[in-house]
Amino acid sequence: MNRKGCDIEATGINYTIYTQKPQPPFKIFNKDQQVTQHQQPFPDPDTNPRARRVLREVSCHAKPWEVLAIVGPSGAGKSSLLEILAGKLTPQTASIYVNQKPMDKSRFKKTSGYVTQKDTLFPLLTVEETLVFTAKLRLNLPSLELRSRVKSLIKELGLTHVANARVGDDRVRGISGGERRRVSIGVAVVHDPEVVILDEPTSGLDSNCAFQIIDMIKTMAETRGKTVILSIHQPGFRIIKLFNSILLLANGTVLHQGTVDELNLSLRLIGLEPPLHVNIVEFAIDSIESIQQQKNQKSSNLEQDIITASTNRITQGKFTLQQLFQQSKVIDLDHDHEDNKDQEQEQDQMITDGFANSRFFEAVILTHRFWKNISRTKELFAYRTLQMLVSEALPVFLQEREILMKETSCGSYRVSSYAIANGLVYLPFLLILAVLFATPLYCALVPNFIVGNSVISGVIGSFFLFSGYFVSKQGKCLEYLFGKCLVSGEDVLREQGGYEDDGSDAPKGDLKVPFFEFFWTFVVLIIEKSA
Ligand SMILES: Nc1ncnc2c1ncn2[C@@H]1O[C@H](COP(=O)(O)OP(=O)(O)OP(=O)(O)O)[C@@H](O)[C@H]1O
């Protein structure tokens, strides 16, 4: 595999979000009314009140073997920039070059690793299992080689002592937050990507733990030639020293890109004196307003200089330094052309038809993973089976939805394989449910098909009807509307003690019939998808 590294250069990134007018619920399905965030329905984002300019003319450069840190206050646009660089978001304008070639998004997503701010892991799997399943899905390697690769990754991540412990989450007790972050990083790098993009890898961790994680990432970049781009809120003293380059972002504009020493120097050049022993990045974030004022003034002077220079050039027929630099770059590109060709061939061989496994093997691996998750629930298996069928089949999917979206968006496997595997695992449970439903009805209640059918329809109908009374206060808006508007039996609900005791019309949060959740979350999902 190519070890030359991956150079990423982005210029002129402009990203604007257009918020939509609230629409009547039934117009959601009207295709003509739909406007995606990325289409530009309004010509001028500066004058449009519904436009929110997230990034303006952002440029950045990330080099192999180095760590580029994107810093800035909350809402500066760090996550948006990372998602654009990872090929997950499409801005209105941008030129992104990967090794001096325009970025091929689908290819880049497969050959890079993206770590989201939130850990999306299966809580019931162990650390080793999590990494083994991901490795199986992403790499087409013999079992022994795959296991030894995972073992060495676990060692590199510093997780050997918890390799057999369950990952856990807020509800299921498992490994610590810092260790979970490491597992998320492991999942993103198990296929040895050349580029690793991490959104706030240290969020929620204490300073020591944060340092250990960044130190580990830095070691990965230095020893394996990876290009690392990460965002970070408030890096401590020790952490700052690990960054090769810092990009200071504020209100969607770049105020600085360079080393920490260069940041220090530019602050001094604009008349800001960082006190001794003060964290320079924190100082820069605190002084953003002053830096921005200076920058605006500078750019208006610069604009004037450019106009003068271009007038001179036209009159004298000379080239600027930048133009000469561009020309030399073209010559370098010719030299690199042959190298790049070999490199691409190697990568093409690796990616083959885009997935590491055939559809059949993907379904087998995913079935195995589902089965492990389902069989490891705390409750008794039989009870769990029934409970899951009635109330959790869809919630389980919703819990896994983020993982599914993350994994399929980076090309780990096909959505159809997930559907097949899920179907295979749930099939026996559905069969059990069908038998449980059918037996008493058939034996005790039902003399013929028509009556049987009516009874079943009645039971299911009651579920949907009465569950409307018990909508969670924190529940989704649509659910609440349904409970309030379509089913107007408020008195029944009051009698049942289904409303809050303070006399308000908010239904009690703990009275929630799962079937309702089941059905309406599904409807909400479909609506979200079609919108
Ligand atoms: N889908 C969206 N709809 C509306 N506003 C959005 C959306 N996505 C991002 N924004 C806005 O864009 C701005 C930048 O968001 P982004 O998440 O990139 O910031 P950030 O620097 O990563 O913040 P944080 O450090 O708090 O995560 C924020 O003001 C945010 O509210």
TrEMBL record:
Domain ABC transporter: 30-276
A GO MF term: ATP binding
InterPro entries with a match to the protein in the record: AAA+_ATPase (IPR003593), ABC2_TM (IPR013525), ABC_transporter-like_ATP-bd (IPR003439), ABC_transporter-like_CS (IPR017871), ABCG_transporters (IPR050352), P-loop_NTPase (IPR027417)
SUPFAM superfamilies: P-loop containing nucleoside triphosphate hydrolases (SSF52540)
A Pfam family per the record: ABC2_membrane
Residues annotated as transmembrane: 419-438, 450-471
Key words of the record: ATP-binding, Membrane, Nucleotide-binding, Transmembrane, Transmembrane helix, Transport
Organism: Lactuca saligna (Willowleaf lettuce)
Subcellular location: Membrane
Major localisation: membrane
The protein's name: ABC transporter domain-containing protein
UniProt key word Metal-binding: no
Membrane topology listed for this record: Multi-pass membrane protein
Gene Ontology cellular-component annotations: membrane
